[in-house]
TrEMBL record:
Cleaved signal peptide residues: 1-22
InterPro entries given in the database record: AB_hydrolase_fold, Plant_Biomass_Hydrol_Est
Residue numbers spanned by region Disordered: 24-43
Swiss-Prot/TrEMBL keywords: Signal
Name the UniProt record assigns to this protein: Esterase
């Protein structure tokens, strides 16, 4: 009788209610099956838990992360499943959405997003971002390349209108464009918010990337940020900050001090910076030259990486020919999972990235604003150099007395201590069927097998919202 009851409960899936112990949330890993006997991932029972986790992270809460062992043979199917559930969670999430992609024209309809209010001197300013979103030409099979164009700091309605006209004129079809008008920026006080890299704008760019990746209209490997003047400053900063999402970036008539946009992060980003030789206000042409010099040094140190096109244009001032940037950018495709990464982790407007490429800081060393990670994956060894970064003033402008403008810095590196890091792994980076070694600053901190798990796919999907970076495995290390 007991055996009959047990079999009945087993068939009904109600062992716990029949007095048997509850099923484990993280079962023991199954033995890998040979490639000639593929099986369907047993994920159906986890769908609800995964969707609940996604729903919680979309409102910046921390839900229960579902865990379940994953066969290496099932990674491709599991990625498809997780991305489908992520799409469903985003569809249900209450927020302003990207509109349908329609042909870009002079008559394009403006849309808008309501962003988190911006703060300046303790006062709150509403942040509404109008934008145009449209396409040129026929959609390629992989989707349109997407260009984010950032306008300059003149009267914003006129700048925004000029941006639409320029986008229509550039020879980069087929392409899609997101052309925002900056929130605020018209009054004396809120004019201080006329920057493309402040908190509410970072919110907008991450929403744009997340929703664009979910669209079947956009190629996730061909995202480009560019802009003119204030938009040049913004796109240079954002290129360094969001390097892992970009195939290329193209600031024009800009030139940032390198502390604001570390060029080390541009290892896999095609970077164009074009400034007039006579554009000397705020040292724009001079700072462009320092960026060129730094990229040339890195390109020599890392052959094949740090592709760049830096042009200090003779006889031109702040207004330059703009038509050359997007044709250059359009030639390049993103590398989402490189086996060599240089990443200076730094904050913009007080905000840090949740991770970059396959690295995610879990704890930053106390009192250290910037950490420089250098990762090389060779065979099944992950070799990391992790250092703190200190900037020491080297060259200060004597042109302005109203603010302190440092043109050049020396960097001082020291081995970092007191941090924790998550290293995401995938079949694209190494062989998950074999043991993995991890070295940090020359010392082995891990050696052994790494188990694939649904939790890593789900958590990395939520962290990066990137279809090209769904990682089935991870190692957490302390340094």
């Amino acid at each position: 009788m007991k055996r009959l009851t047990y079999l009945l409960c087993l068939a009904l899936g109600t062992l716990s209610s029949c007095g048997a112990s509850a099923a484990r949330t993280a079962p023991e890993p199954e033995k890998a099956q040979s490639s000639d006997t593929p099986r369907t991932p047993t994920v159906r029972a986890s769908d609800e838990a995964i969707q609940k986790y996604f729903a919680s992270t979309l409102i910046d809460q921390k839900g229960a992360l579902p865990t379940s062992a994953l066969s290496l043979e099932d990674i491709k199917k599991a990625r498809t499943q997780v991305w489908r559930l992520w799409a469903e969670a985003n569809k249900s999430h209450s927020e302003d959405k990207l509109p349908a992609l329609t042909p870009l024209s002079k008559e394009s309809v403006a849309h808008s997003w309501l962003l988190t209010p911006e703060m300046y001197n303790g006062q709150s300013y509403q942040a509404v971002m109008p934008f145009y979103y449209g396409s040129k030409g026929d959609k390629p099979e992989a989707g349109y390349p997407l260009y984010l164009y950032l306008h300059g700091s003149g009267e914003k309605k006129g700048e925004w209108s000029t941006g639409l006209a320029l986008a229509l004129s550039f020879q980069d079809s087929p392409s899609a464009y997101f052309i925002p008008q900056i929130p605020n920026g018209e009054g004396v006080a809120d004019g201080q918010l006329y920057r493309w890299w402040q908190k509410s704008k970072l919110e907008a760019w991450e929403k744009l990337l997340r929703q664009a990746f979910l669209s079947d209209q956009i190629d996730p490997k061909r995202i480009y940020f560019f802009g003119i003047s204030e938009g040049g400053y913004g796109s240079q900063r954002l290129a360094s900050y969001y390097a892992d999402y970009l195939a290329g970036a193209g600031p024009m008539a800009g030139g940032e001090p390198l502390i604001n946009a570390p060029v080390e992060n541009l290892q896999h980003v095609a970077f164009s910076l074009r400034t007039g030789y006579n554009d000397t206000q705020f040292h724009r042409s001079e700072l462009t030259g320092y960026t060129r010099d730094a990229l040339q040094r890195l390109a020599a140190q890392y052959p094949g990486y740090y592709k760049h096109f830096i042009d200090i244009i003779p006889k031109y001032g702040h207004a330059i020919p703009y038509q050359y940037t997007t044709p250059y950018l359009s030639q390049h495709v993103r590398t989402p999972q490189p086996n060599q990464v240089n990443w200076e982790d730094y904050p913009i407007d007080g905000l840090y990235r949740k991770g970059c490429y396959n690295l995610a800081p879990l704890k930053r060393p106390e009192g250290k604003e910037r950490i420089y990670y250098q990762e090389t994956i060779l065979g099944n060894t992950v070799d990391l150099k992790i250092n703190t970064v200190k900037y020491v003033e080297k060259l200060v402008s004597d042109w302005y007395t109203s603010f302190h403008l440092v043109l050049l810095y020396d960097k001082v590196y020291e081995p970092a201590k007191g941090g924790k890091l998550r290293i995401y792994l995938s079949p694209e980076l190494l062989d998950l069927s074999k043991p993995v070694r991890v070295l940090v600053n020359g010392h082995q901190v891990y050696s052994g097998m790494v188990k694939a798990d649904w939790s890593h796919l789900v958590e990395s999907c939520s962290r990066f919202f990137d279809p090209e970076r769904l990682f089935p495995a991870a190692i957490d290390i302390a340094y």
